[in-house]
Amino acid sequence: MSFEVHKVVFEQGPGDASEFEKLALSGAIQPDQVVAVIGKTEGNGGVNDFTRMLADRAFRDVLRRHGRRAEAAVAAIPMVWSGGTDGVLCPHACVFTRVDDAAGGLAVGTAMSEPILPEEIGRTAMVEKVAAAVREAMANAGIADRADVHWVQTKTPLLTMEDIRQARSRGREAALPDPHGSMDLSNGTAALGVALGLGEVERTAISDGVIGRALEVYSSVASCSSGVELDRAQVVLLGNGGPGGRQRIGHSVMRDALDQGAVYDAIREAGLDLPARPVAADVEQSVINVFAKCEADPTARLRGRRQVMLDDSDVHHHRHAKAAVGAVIAAAVGDPAVFVSVGAMHQGPPGGGPVAAIVRLYGSAEALHRVPAGEAVRPSASGGPAAGGRDDRHPEALDGVAGGRLLADLPGGGRPPPGARDPAPGFAGACGERADPDRRRRGGARVCGQGRDQALIRAASRCPAG
Q: Whole-prediction pTM value?
């Protein structure tokens, strides 16, 4: 099964799905082929962040208006909304669609867990329910090798006072006496569920006493959020279903908030060759989106320097960390519309977090982006299209459907930018090597240095598809 992701922005607020609707009306997105949505909204990111509900309703309304699926089917589509676009981050959504039955490239699997009771949050019962859903999502994605899974996005319930009262009415106690802290705890419990479901950790390594305490036990691909809008775990699993494809995903692990190199490692693993010291101009024409988890380092130190995020009584450390890491990643790829979520308990090492990148691949002519007629591609210093050539004002510049010139018709013949790999089928390198799958645990790339998937040149006009 072949999938694609389209990035759309919220131009007028969290209830505005007009950019998504434009893609549906143009035919760039088939509403009945949407399988999942992962997005950032502009709320406070806390328990009472209602922007997530506004975005959810707006996007589902588009599917109801322009699709043919029954109400129950629309309601069942996983939509994972993460609140909070602190600093330079921009509200946006990634819409994942089923394209055809071809194998290879980006693969998406979804699942819903069994209901999670309030008293199970922060305990192994929740870990096991999430793990079962992760295994189901992996099977749904058609991925057989766990090493081909690069991102697992979950949304799970957190505690409210009403939840705590309900647990007590059953003679049970919640893991926490009030909602504060339950977001991090729910996220961390779900992350251990991801780790268990993918075999990153053994079941014997997880107990109630480990959750929220043994932070050296973590998943390298989990991105877990929580909210009041659901009572079970939503799981969206992203990986590669085989060689080739128009889009691919890779991942790495940020060791701390300044680890920009891990962002480029994820991009390399997705299929792009980069120079030894890459900059945004080397990647911004090929990267569709970057996803990352982050947190304030619990030691209150960053590369030996004292940090005060955890001591700030005016601004919560979640917002400090999200803004800082968001800026690091946005600068790496030249795009502030990146997905950065905070609360990374058991998601990467303490003070760091997993990071993944989805890129376009260079291949057949129909996969090439078209540039609106009259638009010129201005080369960057490295020879690729420059960031300044992008123009978000052209919703008609859609992937493979809009009028205009193929990149091959442009000056330079549409050659891939420096760093793009030579066109060749297959995911293994020229040496025939597939990299060590155990390197995923260390955040290393699994593609050998001679790998030859080639990056798709993005046109100077960025289309709403990504």
A: 0.79
Q: Is the Cβ–Cβ distance between 79 and 56 less than 8 Å?
A: yes
For residues 115 and 230, give the distance between their C-alpha atoms in angstroms, rounded to a whole number.
9
CA distance 304 to 34: 46
Can you give the pLDDT at residue 58? 98
First to last CA, the chain: 20
For residues 173 and 44, give the distance between their C-alpha atoms in angstroms, rounded to a whole number.
28
Predicted pLDDT of residue 384: 37
For residue 37, list its beta bridge partners.
79, 95
DSSP E strands, 206-269? 222-227, 232-240, 247-254
Round to whole Å and give the CA distance between 183 and 171.
Answer: 23
Residues in the chain: 466
Contact 392, 375 (CB under 8 A): no
| Catalytic annotation, pick one of 7, 40, 129, 155 | 155
Active site residue 225: yes
Helix (H, G, I), strand (E, B) or coil at 290: strand
Kindly name the residue from 219, 220, 225, 461 that is annotated as catalytic: 225
Q: Can you give the pLDDT at residue 425?
A: 31
Nearest Cα to 120, choosing from 90, 68, 92, 156? Answer: 156
In whole angstroms, what is the distance from residue 286 CA to residue 453 CA? 13
Cα dihedral 185/191/197/201 (nearest 10): -100
- 194-246 confidence digits (pLDDT tens): 999 999 999 999 999 999 999 999 999 999 999 888 899 999 999 999 888 88
Please give the Cα distance from 223 to 230 (Å, whole number): 17
pLDDT > 70 fraction of the chain, expressed in percent and rounded: 77
Q: Bridge-partner residues for 306, per DSSP?
A: 301
Nearest alpha-carbon partner for 247 in 145, 339, 386, 151? 151
B/e letters for 21-40, b = 16+ CB within 10 Å, e = fewer, are bbbbeeebbebeebbbbbbb
Active site residue 82: no
